[in-house]
Amino acid sequence: MSHALQAAFLGIVQGLTEFLPVSSTAHLLISEKLIGFDDPDGGSILAVVWLYRVKILEIVAGLPSKAESRAFALAIIVAVIPALVAGGLLSDFVKGVLYSSFRAIAAAFIVGGLVMLMVERLRPKPAVFQMDRVPIARALAVGIFQTLALIPGVSRSGATIVGGLVMGLDRPAAAEFSFFLAIPTMTAAFAHQLLEVRHHLGPERAGEIAVGFVMAFLASAAIVKPFVNFVRRSGFAPFAWYRIVLGIVLLAALVAGWTLPRGGVAP
């Protein structure tokens, strides 16, 4: 498989899983090790910006004159701070240790799925029904939940959605607040990734990143709206069960002696 096709494949994986509560990081780590190729991901950010462009422009235009727009912008800023701080302090440990432990990823899949099922059953009665009406204190709590996503397999969207449900957001509001919180969080992560590979950004490598970026954009653009409609009808339990089954399969494969091809990191 050519590098361009590998980049396209990883872009599709990233785009399809980034906003679902199934951990795009874990799916990418597994996929990268299987095909022996890695690629920075960023197209999903642009997909959310495009899909919610009307709302984003409305908020930006309202900052000088509307208290609601300023309150929502502040809520996003407050919510993103815990992840930025935790990422700055723990990124070396996470990438150096947890990213190479597929047993930890499998455990995170299973535990995260079980937590999601429990929260779906025991969550408080929703009190917030619009993602741009999340109070600052609840936004901060969701941001603290987001720090758990540093652990591969937990899922950034899963952690923030569960945090939103615990803090009284209804399902669509929790999902959409997670999308908006993804914009600064993922932008910072993508910028950090580009800084790490900046010395290897020749024309060929830049082209591969561009291919992955475009495919992630298209895949994310196709999945976001159907996802919100699905959780409005059916909730998050199907994703929880997917996580649990995938975690069990991954653990079984590791116990059976599965090893990563093409020089991958051993679990």
Keywords:
74% helix; single chain; mainly alpha; 267 residues
Question: Can you describe this structure?
Answer:
This protein is 74% helix and 0% strand. It has 267 residues and is mainly α. It has one domain (3-255). The longest helix is centred in the C-terminal third of the chain and has 32 residues, at 203-234. The protein is globular. Mean pLDDT is 87; it is low at 261-267.
Spans of at least 5 consecutive residues whose pLDDT stays below 50 are: 261-267
Briefly note the structural class of the backbone.
mainly alpha
Major β-sheet profile: none
Count, helices:
11
β-sheet strand percentage: under 5%
Proportion of helical residues: over 70%
Give the integer mean of the pLDDT values. Answer: 87
What is the H-and-E element order? HHHHHHHHHHH
Summarize the structure.
The protein is 74% helix and 0% strand. It is mainly alpha-helical and 267 residues long. It has one domain.
Topology:
Layout: H1 3-17, H2 24-35, H3 43-51, H4 53-62, H5 67-96, H6 102-122, H7 136-146, H8 156-166, H9 171-197, H10 203-234, H11 237-255
